[in-house]
Each structure stands twice: as C-alpha cells, then as structure tokens.
Amino acid sequence: MSLRRDRLWLVFLGLGLLCTTLFAAGVTPDLASAVIGVACVLAWGLGPRLHDVRPRRPWRMMTAAAVFFISGILLRSMLVEQPAPVAQIGDALTVCGFGFFIAALVTFLNRWGMDRRALLDGLIVCIGAALTSTLLFVVPAATIPGRPLVVTLIAGLYPLLDTVTVLLVTNLAFTTAVRQPAFVLLGGMMVLMFCGDLGFAIIGRHGEVTGPPLMDLPFLLAFTIGGAAALHPTARALSRATPLPIQAWSLPRMLVIGPAVAAPFILTVTLGADTTVLRWTLGLGGAAIVALLLVRAADAVHSHAAAQRSFEHQATHDPLTGLPNRRMLTLMVERLLSEERPERGAGVWMFYLDLDGFKLVNDSWGHPAGDRLIVDVGTRLRLALPAATVARVGGDEFVVVQRCSEPEAMANARRIMECVERPLVVVTADGGTADVVIGASMGIVQSTRGSDQADTLMRDADTAMYRAKAAGRNRWTVFDASMRDAVRERVEIEVALRAAVAQEQLSIAYQPIIAMDTDRPAGAEALCRWQHPVRGWIGPNMFIAVAEDSNLISALGAWVLRESVRQLAAWRADGVVDDDFWMSVNVSPRQLGDPAFAERLGATLRQARVPAANLVLEITESVMVEGSDLTERVLVELRALGVRISVDDFGTGFSALGYLRRHPVTGVKIDRSFVNGLGTSAEDEEIVRAVVAMSSALHLAVVAEGVETRAQREVLVALGVPLAQGWLWGKAVDPATFAATWAVRVATTGAVRSN
Questions:
Q1: Looking at the predicted structure, is the pLDDT value of residue 691 above 60?
Q2: Are residues 104 and 216 in the same domain?
Q3: 0.90 exceeded by pTM
C-alpha cells in the first residue's frame, strides 16, 4: 500500500500529460482541461494528507489558488465574447488565485526562514524583472487607446503579479541547499505559469486579451506537475529548508542575477530612453540594483570578516567554556614570560589542575551534567581570580597563570581549591538537580628563569599535578627538579620495558605456597622479574606500575600466563609436583577488560594439557569495586572454564562482604600488613581471625602472605589459616632452583612419613 502511495505522483503525471496532449490535439479540449483542473485541486487538497505533510496551511492556500485559477480559465473561455467588464470576471478570479498562490509562497518562506542575502539577491532579480515587465508590457498595454479601464488595469496587473512571484521563487531557491523532487516540480510549475503569463503579456502589448487555445498549454502543464509535487513523498521536505552554509555568488546564482543586473542597460539601448519618464524609470531602477549590489557586497565582506573572527576564536578558545585553549594559553604565557618583571621576587606562576571525581559525575548523571559542571568550574575560577589567565586544556583540566609573588601564589592555590570544592548544582537526566562535591589535584610551578618557555612550564606543572594525584588526590604539589628527573627516569624505563617485553627479556620466579599442616608446597605464585642489562635489578613495584600506565600490562600479563602455565605443565610431566599442585598468577584489570581473555586462556591451558582447576588468578579488590559489566562477564567465563579466582591483598581496600558474595571468587589472600603484626598486635590478630571466619562461611580458600617468622606461622596455624607463603620458606626463585629445592623436600617428607 505504501509503495502504491509513493508512486501515485507518477500516475497523476501520466494522466496530466495525456489530457494535455488531448487538449493540444483538439480532442475534447474542454473536458481535458477540466479533468486536469479538478485533479490538481484534489491533489493539492488530499496529497499533503496522504503523506502527512506538516504544516498544511500553505497547501490549503495552493488548493484555493488552484480553484480560482481553474475557475478563471473556464470563465474566461466562456465569457470571451462578452463586453467589459463581464469578460474580465475570469481574470478577476485568476488574480485572486495569484493572491492565494503568493500567500502560499510567503508561508513556505516564513517556515524556512528569511535569509538576508537571499532577500537581497531576490530584490535584485525582482527589480530587473519589474523594469522589464513594466517597460515592455505594462506601459504599452496602458497606452493602447479606446480600451476600457478595467481591461487596461488587468493587462498591467499580470506582469506585476508575475514579478512578485519571481521575487518569492528566487528567495525560495536561494534559501535552501537541498532541492527535493517536490521542490523541483513546484519550481517547474511556477516557470510554466510565468511563461503562460508572458505569452498573454506579449499579445497584450497589441491590445489583445485572448489568444489561441494553445496559449493555455503552459498552464495545463503547470497544473499537471504542480499536482504531482503535492503527491510526491518528498513534499514533507517542503516544511523545512536545508540552509546554505554561505550565500555565495555561485555560477547558478549569477546566471539568475546577471540578466537582472543587465536589464537597465539593455532596456536603455533597446528602448532609447527618449522620454523623461523612461529615463527616470531606468535610472532609478539601475540605481536601486547598484545600491543592492553594494549592500550585498558589503554584507559579504562583513560576513567574511565575522566568519574569520569566529574561526580564529574557535581555533584559540574552548567551545564549551569560552576559555582560552591550550594553543591560546601557550601564546599568552609566552607573552607574559617575555615581559619585563615589574618588581623583584615576582614570577610567572602556573597552576595545573585536574578535577577529581569528574568521571563519576559523567557516569552518574550523564555528559550534559558533566558539561555543566565544567562550565561552572571555569566560571568560578574566572571570578575568583580576575587578574589571572584561566584556560581549559583538556576534558577536565584547567590551567591558571598569573605573575605574582610566592605568598600571593599560595593564596591563589587555596582560592582555586576552594572554588572547586564548593558544592556544585548539576541537572540530572530526568530534569532534576543534584548537589555534587568534587576535588582537584593541582600542580604548581614558578618561572623565574629567562630561558623558561610555555611548553616547559606546562610540562612541569602537569608533572607536579600527577604527583599530587598519586599522593592521594584533592591536594596540590609544587614542582621541583627531582620530579623532572623522576619523569625522565620513568620514560626511560618505559622505553626499556617495551623492548624487554617485545624481546622476552624478563623472567619469572616462583615462590612456594605452603600447606601449613604438612609444610609441603600446595602451589606456587608466579612473579615477574626484570634484570636490566645496564640498570641492573628493577623492582616489580616500579615496572609493573609503568606497564599499567603505558598499556604494556596486557602483553606482559599474557606472556607471564603462558610461561607459568607452560612451566607448570613441565613440572607435572617431570614429576616435580603432584596432580593437585596449582599455579597462582596475578592478572590486571586491563586484562579482565578483554572480552576474549577467557577464550585465549582456555586455549593456552588445553595446549599445555593443564587442568583449569590447577590455575589460580589473583585479582585486586578494585576489580570487584570498579569493574564494568564486561569485567564481571569475563570473571564468570573464567569460573565456567574451571579457573579459580583469588582476591589479592585482601583487607587493604574495600573489603566488603557484599563484593565477595556478588563476584565468583574462590579464595582470598590476607595482606602482609596484617601478618607482620601477628604475635605482637592483638588488633591484627583479630582482623585475621575475622577474615578466616568470613572465608570459612563463604567456603573460600585463605592464603596468608608475607610470613617471615616462626611466631607468625604459629599464630596463623592457631587461627586456622591453612595456606601461607613468605620468606620463612624462601624467596621466589628460578624454575630450576624451585624444582631442585621442593622436589627434594617432597621426597624427604614422603620418606619420613613412610617410616
């Protein structure tokens, strides 16, 4: 049904062309014209309803125009032999039709929005058309002697109405960049009507008001394609325009405007301008066109300058807050650094702050709330520090720069933190409001050296900001040279680590996890080690953090998993460990965010022929607290695979019972900070006791790490901790040493027991 409706305009077009052909051939011309007229009225009246075109007001006006046009044509042919003014009743109806038609075009134009440049161009075309029609048609028709006044008025009115129509059609064409088929059909209808009126205007120069029937052909064709426009599916697009980005004097536009501009000169040559009225008419018309051209040119220059200013502002300012961006800030700081210092002790101070908690606002209330928060923070900083330069250099990063003394800089730092920490009101997704409190980590740097540059200051302030964030957030840190050295060292470590990971230069050491009742290893933890050829030993606390920050952790973690599983398979094959022995490996949150992680791990285990139950993956508490739905799904897939999951460093973070119940974990590791105090701290002992009781209730395995003394071991045994690891049984060692040490011990223990 929808397909038939969309093609109805083609049926109408075919019917109209058939009737027009019959009319031209003289076959029942009255019936053919009546069919086209009635069909056009029905099309304009019902077509917009067929495609649910909104608004329908202009189409109602066009329907009324069609009724008057058709009635005028029929009456004009019927009353052609009658004397004036009876013979002009049909023309009066046609004039009324023009009125409704012009009103419909104005309604479309108001709906689209009147463009100033399109109006100027339309007026130029209109004046050119008005001069041409007035001097070529209206004046000759008005000077024909012996005609009734009403005939003269109507003969002169048609060209003027066509001129107004030309103005409106030109404005419509110059206002939209996309011209759908319905628009093209309507435009074709207007051109045909203009041609038809032009024909009658030409014969009107000689005093004739009627012509041969074939002169009505343009009107019949106009009604045919006009009705097709109303039935075309794209008629809906006529309710809105696609604005032109720039109202340029393009070639098509110049082809329309050019003849209008040339009209006064051509008419002067053609008509001779031998009377005062003619000279004044051509002079005023030409002057009006020149004036409009000058206004149009001035407007184009003004628009170009405004666009240039807008472009420069967009290139140097943040679009959300209107504050200077990084590019503009660099220029402003360079200018400030080049100025002479007004007083001794005053330097350029830069405050680089990153909002703490901004991501939580975005996640909780949506990005519009986050944008509102950013705008409010920028406004607060600007009001609190009117003498300073405030810029936005990142998503939630701001920079404040001011030349001042050190006491003033510290006062500014406190003022900045107070601005950020005051509660802010954000609009929630449901339209309500919420009070939010955020903080900021801020780095501060002072420039007192003439060699300082803006990029250097921003780099140092950024470094200090990250130091403040690492120290606990919601604080500020003043930059010193040691931070730059630390950053340089970190960069060097990252470069070396990338090469080490790519070339597999790292190694894995294994620390036994002891069953307390037998003092035999129940498993081992795989620990990554790095012996740099130049720097020597680099601790895991250093390079693991670098790997996390630089996205190397996924490649490093995958390699550790493959190697540790391969090593476990080798020990099982060589009889170093029994079938119950398991391997414990740390995995990062980034690895658990990989949707294919469980699938790849399963393939690794199958290739090595190691049961999934013999692998324990250690996760941090932050994975349970901050993990996404994807992380949760990966954990479930790992448990379905058979892999065990243990929470590392349990008790140091968000050790809530709900997290353990909600996530598929199988064990916990008591952090060494609680084990250290066993035997001397009653508080640590109670914490361990509580962890053991909770784990027993949830059927979780418990491992205590960091056991170094016999006293700690005895307390753990008394508290019911079944598994432990630590230096009491030895440090992590290479695979060969581990195999030699623990294979002998297993054999010895077994021999003692057998006796």
A1: yes
A2: yes
A3: no
